[in-house]
Amino acid sequence: MDYPNDTWSDDDMLAWLSIQRDGDWTTNALGETILYPANHYWRQDLVQTDQQLKALIDSKPMLYPERLVRPAAFGSEAVVLATDPLLDTLTTLYAVLVGMFVKTEIGQHYKPSPYVKRFLQAFGNCAYLNEAGFHQPPVLSREQAEQVVDELNQRLGALYQSTQQPNFTVECYNNRRNSRANYLRLRALIDGLFKRHSRLMVLRVDLAYTEADTPYIDYETARHHRKQLCRRFSRDPAFEHLLGYAWKLEWQPKKGFHYHLLFFFDGHRCRDDVTKARFIGELWTRSITGGQGLYYNCNLDADQRYRYNAMGLVDYYDFEKQRGLDNLAKYLTKIDEYAAMLVKGRTFQTSWMPTPPSGPRLGRPRQQ
Fold first, then answer.
1. What is the secondary structure of 35-89 as a DSSP string?
2. Of 42 and 271, the one with more pLDDT
3. SS3 content of the chain, % helix, strand, coil (to 5)
4. For residue 89, is pLDDT > 90?
5. What letter does residue 308 receive in the DSSP assignment?
6. CB 172 within 8 A of CB 114
7. 250: closest CA among 154, 346, 152, 165?
8. Of residues 138, 134, 158, the one with CA closest to residue 147
9. Alpha-carbon gap, residue 52 to 55, rounded angstroms
10. What is the pLDDT of residues 139-185, one digit of tens each?
């Protein structure tokens, strides 16, 4: 397989996020299905703001006082800054990014992208954008208005200049490199498994915590629970015929720490993917977390839930499901470019790569 230069474009990511459900049906420790609110919209904001910042920095526009300064009312000496595409963009970016990384606790767990970081450095303490973004545009004297426009242009110049520095290029490269390295590792695991097995059974199970327990689950606790689950892989009947796996740790404002797990089972020895995913979810909710956990069985009604379904039995020649697997691999690894987690230890891991086959492959012969 030829790997792309980038794992996924911004537009691809937005398209993926836009088809996610408004809420996820999760299951608690009692086996009861509940509607858990979706928290992926902040991710859309991150991707969209990055797109806006990239376009802004590429074009390097400036503000012009003669276009912006307008009387606050007919005959008034007081003025306001008129509606302007660039000023509107700056106000929106400020409200979203300062609200996300300064005024809330999201920044406790995530760091901004290189573009967002430079914007916050240039505009984070801008008094005018703070009023316009979180309250309403202030009424000013003409002299004050001209000073505000001059200040905004100076901040824009500082933003543009900061993106020309070598450290900015290095940060962008490191983010893309980490994302791509994770994608290549997961893709290599999938390819390696298909070299040994003509059919895999793929499960995706998302493991989280109840709304009541989420505020008390720190990184160390989540990591401990994940390690306890991984230790079961070699001895619990739920993981019989397991061939490989991958996990991804994430954090969201309301959902807290949670894991996305992919499991690859021998498709010739396992059939009922929905039931097996449920067993794993119940192991998490009841045994591993002692009732604190929730799980989401992504295999349940997967054909109806996902545009490119990657769950269930996947044959090496099934192009549509292979496409779904690749999209899933890109999604799980690309998101780090926008929100890299500030925690110690790994946030993404796969199982060991399978050894190349030395004998005849199990299953039907491959079609030429």
1. EEEP--HHHHHHHHHHHHHHHHHHH-----HHHHEEESSTT-S-EEEPP-HHHHH
2. 271
3. 50, 20, 30
4. yes
5. S
6. yes
7. 346
8. 138
9. 5
10. 999 999 999 999 999 999 999 999 999 999 998 888 778 888 899 99
80 vs 136: CA distance, rounded Å: 11
Residue 142 is which amino acid? Answer: R
Map out the domains of the chain as residue ranges: 10-39+186-350, 41-164
Distance CA 263, CA 185 (A): 15
Residue whose entry in the numeric block shows the structure tokens 């911004």? 10
Question: 3-state SS string over 139-178?
Answer: CECHHHHHHHHHHHHHHHHHHHHHCCCHHHHHHHHHHHHH
Question: What pLDDT is recorded for position 354?
Answer: 82
Decide the pairing of beta strands 199-209 and 312-315. Answer: antiparallel
Tokens of 225: 């629970």
Average pLDDT over residues 85-96: 95
Question: Are β-strands 79-81 and 340-341 bridged in parallel, bridged antiparallel, or unpaired?
Answer: unpaired
3 state DSSP class of 270:
coil
Choose among 202, 340, 204, 224: nearest CA to 293. Answer: 224
Residue 39: pLDDT over 50: no
Q: What tokens appear for 30 in the block?
A: 């009692």
Residues 6+ apart with CB under 8 A from 214: 208, 254, 255, 256, 257
Tell me the average pLDDT across 240-250: 93
The percent of residues in the chain predicted with pLDDT above 90, rounded, is 56
Euclidean distance between CA atoms 132 and 130, whole angstroms: 6
pTM of the model: 0.72
Distance of CA 2 to the CA centre of its chain: 24
- Would you tell me how many other CB atoms lie within 10 Å of the CB of residue 223? 17
Q: What angle do CA 319, 181, 323 make, to 5 degrees?
A: 10
What is the per-residue DSSP string for 1-48? Answer: -PPPSSS--HHHHHHHHHTS-SEEEEE-TTS-EEEEEP--HHHHHHHH
Smallest CA-to-CA distance from 305 within 313, 293, 297 is with: 297
pLDDT (mean) for 285-293: 95
Contact assessment for residue 270 and residue 3, using Cβ atoms and an 8 Å cutoff: no
